[in-house]
Amino acid sequence: MANTSNENQSKKPKGILSWLDENFEKPFLFIGMLAIIIFITYQTLYRYLVSQFFGGAGIPVWTEELSRFIFIWISYLAVPIAIKERSNIRVDILYDRLSDRWKKISWILVDLCILALTGMIFYMGIDHIRMQFEFPQNTASMGIPYFIPYLILPIGFGLMAIRAIQDLIKEIKSIPMKDTLIGLLCAIIIAIPLFIGLELPALVWLFGYFILFLAIGVPVAMSLGLSAMATIIGAGTMPVEYVAQIAFTSIDSFPIMAIPFFVAGGVFMGVGGLSKRLLDLADELLGNFTGGLALATVATCMFFAAISGSGPATVAAIGSLTIPAMVERGYDKYFSAALVAAAGAIGVMIPPSNPFVVYGVSSQASIGKLFMGGIVPGILTGLVLMGVSYYYAKKNNWKGEARKRTAKSIGLAFWDAKWALMVPVIILGGIYSGKMTPTEAAAVSAFYGLIVGLFVYKGINMQNIISCFMEACSTSAVIIVLMAMATIFGNIMTVEQVPTMIAAAILKFTSSKIMILLIINIFLLWVGTFMEALAAIVILTPILLPVVTQVGVDPVHFGVIMVANLAIGFITPPVGVNLFVACGVAKSKIEDIAKAVIPMLLAMIAVLLLITYVPEVSMFLTKYVK
After folding, report:
1. Does residue 351 have a cis bond before it (omega within 30 degrees)?
2. Residue 138: phi, psi to the nearest 5?
3. Comparing C-alpha atoms, which of 387, 291, 283, 292 is closest to residue 342?
4. Cα 361 to the chain's mean position, in Å?
5. Rounded to the nearest 5°, which phi and psi values hold at 409?
6. Alpha-helical regions (H) of 86-99
7. pTM for the whole thing?
8. For 157-201, how does the pLDDT look when each residue is reduced to its tens digit (9 = 90+)?
9. Contact 318, 297 (CB under 8 A)
10. CA-CA-CA-CA torsion for 279, 287, 590, 265, nearest 10 degrees?
11. C-alpha dihedral over 351, 259, 145, 249, to 10 degrees?
12. Is 524 helix (H, G, I), strand (E, B) or coil?
């Protein structure tokens, strides 16, 4: 009996440790994300309801500052989960061609690289806290000591280092010691140039290490941070302590907070059942035409684009409903999956759009104007995809659903979808009426989606609400840490005058606006084949924007061109994320869907050329933005 008791006591701590290992970050992320959604929604409603009807101050002064700090905390607390689940954005071209043995060795190398960066920022974060104690400062609104929000640097990056160590140990246990030593040796070889006194130009350090880290599969954000750190060490470009400070200040921004809110809103509305109501409405309107379900699929993706702001989220939410239904009605499975993948790209054109937010922050362009500029290109893309769908439906005799549709049935479909249709009204109406900033509109829409999903459609429940919040936090955190590391990388480029040099080189080659835009389009289409859209935007905007502005291209127009280009990248192998999501839903091979998507790809390129060379297509609506 005593032995059994001892066994139970020994098992209990193990169970607790296992639970902590699995869930340590999750309570903080859930509470933090819920808090900032509520705080910013409260701030917005207080300004226009409470203060007007009951008097008092126009805005509670603490909500924005507290929300910014919580946002930074949950962003860096979610990255350890992404490291643990290996869900960071990375370039896998070389990795996919490795044997299974070398793939495992490469993960040893990747984990060591992540550990190097997170360990250095952890150490610098502690040093920064020490400085805050020596020279204390208080925040502007709440008056709390600044060391409190800055604690996230040692805590967050310390957790990232722990998760990297855990992944490293797990990988070491799964491979022979010889392979572990090979991975360690590769890491040492990569680091040696920094410590042997090589005198190389800063740009050689910066881009040499960045390309190397990308090639070996280090996540893009970590590659940016590591290459910037290597340049600081190798070329002495700026003080190394600068990295920790920028890791905090670069994302201490109210506009950037729109990203997690839009991501959360998309997740809540997809899980909450809004996507199904939108499909039912589109099918009621278009289902009786030739290729009716294909047309309804594109229309639903356009509707959902005005909710989620994400291409892959649109494919996952709509594809899981439409691909099986299209196959059941006789459509080719590969065509069905390809259509959803292509139509899902509209998710980053029609507002709200996370790429537009990232570009707006990177370029200092108006996010409201970018949103407005994306509406017509998004609708045009949807229409040409409908045209392609109709052509192939006619060719293959894919008929619409033969059932009677009446004004009453259409009215009922509209009524059933009313809660979903309100989301674009809240977001766009709030922004363009001047009542809300994009960040406030995003927070209100996320709050609305959560309430509707919980209490109206009841797709969100106690079983899945935590996973909804974790998906929103981890997805947005990957974007946020990418922006933080890109700021460090971009500042080194600015110090070394890289944008100026590239602009001078291109303008020396040609001063023709038509040729420059053509070259940039071809370049962006190529980049989109192997780099995720958000990563491309944060890296390339500081380089390309000075070039196009010198030939008279409006920054908002260029933002639309860039996002439309990179939206096409969602359906171009080998890194076409929409294709991979569609493959997962359709249970098909990437090659089969990649072939089926070619006609849609060509149609989207035609729209891109129209957007590029006829600026009024994307710019005329921006005139109505204050």
Report:
1. no
2. -115, 155
3. 387
4. 14
5. -65, -35
6. none
7. 0.84
8. 999 999 999 999 999 999 999 999 999 999 999 999 999 888 899
9. yes
10. -10
11. -90
12. helix
Cα 349 to Cα 264: distance, rounded to the nearest angstrom: 18
213 touches 231 (CB < 8 A): no
Q: Are 563 and 576 in contact (CB under 8 A)?
A: no
Contacts of 126 (CB under 8 A, 6+ apart): 153, 154
Phi and psi torsions of 90, nearest 5°: -150, 165
**Using 50, 70 and 90 to split pLDDT, how confident is the model at 229?**
very high
- How confident is the model over 366-405, as pLDDT tens digits? 999 999 999 999 999 999 999 999 999 999 888 877 677 7
Cα–Cα distance for residue pair 23/35, rounded to 1 Å: 19
Six-digit token string for 262: 């839009």
For residues 7-17, give the mean pLDDT. 54
Assess contact for 306 and 424: CB atoms under 8 A. yes
Structure-token match 């494919």, residue found: 315
Query: Tokens standing for 43?
Result: 């701030």
- How far apart, in whole angstroms, are the C-alpha atoms of residue 206 and residue 197? 16
**CA dihedral defined by 251, 253, 256, 261, rounded to 10 degrees?**
110
Q: Distance between CA atoms of 352 and 427, rounded to whole angstroms?
A: 8
Helices (H) and strands (E) in the chain, counts: 31, 0
Residue 107 pLDDT grade (very low, low, confident, very high; cuts 50, 70, 90) = very high
Q: In the predicted model, is pLDDT for residue 6 greater than 70?
A: no
The sign of the CA dihedral 547, 548, 551, 556 is negative
- Which backbone phi and psi does 200 adopt, to 5 degrees? -120, 155
Confidence of residue 290 (pLDDT cuts 50, 70, 90): confident
- Asked whether residue 12 carries a pLDDT value surpassing 70, the answer given is no
Give the residue from 126, 116, 123, 103 showing the smallest Cα distance to 179: 103
Beta bridge pairs of residue 145? 138
Contact 344, 524 (CB under 8 A): no
Of 432 and 202, which is predicted with more confidence?
Answer: 202
Q: What is the distance between the alpha carbons of residues 82 and 439, in angstroms, rounded to a whole number?
A: 24
Q: Residue 397 CB: number of other CB atoms within 10 A?
A: 9
Low-confidence winner among 148-152, 216-220, 428-432, 560-564 (lowest mean pLDDT): 428-432
What is the Cα 262 distance to its own chain's centre? 10
